[in-house]
Amino acid sequence: MATENKSCVCDKNHGKFLGKLIFRNGAENYLWACKECLRPLKSGVYISKNAANRYIHLADAPIIDDHRELNEDTLCSYKGCKSKNIEYHHWAPKEIFGKREADHWPVSPLCTKHHSLWHAAMYDGFYNISEHSSKEDITRALSFLQNPPIP
Q1: What pTM does this model have?
Q2: Maximum Cα–Cα distance for the chain, whole Å?
Q3: Which of 14, 26, 87, 141 is the most buried (most CB within 10 A)?
Q4: Are 60 and 77 contained in the same domain?
Q5: Coil, helix or strand for 31?
Q6: Nearest to residue 33, comparing CAs of 74, 80, 71, 55?
């Protein structure tokens, strides 16, 4: 049941359920969805697996959207990469640009490796780590991306 990852547009509160989005690379994200229209209550607002597991057994979470079979021929947009194991990278994060502005910026397919490397480079740049970062710095940045601090 594809929702095109758009937020709920119902005028009334029909209740919510914890659902699962499955991305092209098989990664799963959990979010609250509307029982009436089956769309996310807030697009792009995900719940960690640990938090989701408090509400429902993860294997039992209904699938809201499954992208594993989409765009079979889409390749990573990193020059020379032939990987089809893609994720869609948002060039303007909603957390920084706000939802309305972020939706006006492009989204590009990147393989998991290049997507992680891009975010690690941005993390390094944000914290003024030089381009000649040590292996430990890169490992720390990647670890941060995989386990970000919970606000």
Answers
A1: 0.50
A2: 53
A3: 141
A4: no
A5: strand
A6: 55
- Chain CA centroid to CA 147, Å: 13
Cα four-point dihedral sign 53, 56, 59, 64: negative
Indicate whether 57 and 75 sit together in one domain.
no
138: which 2 tokens? Answer: 């890169």
Domain count of the chain? 2
Q: Which domain holds residue 35?
A: 1-69
> Is the backbone of residue 61 left (phi > 0), alpha (psi -120 to 50) or beta?
beta
Q: Which of 22, 52, 69 is the last residue of a domain?
A: 69
Q: Which residues, given as ranges, of the chain have pLDDT below 70?
A: 1-5, 11, 44, 70-72, 124-151
Q: Which two tokens stand for residue 133?
A: 């970062």
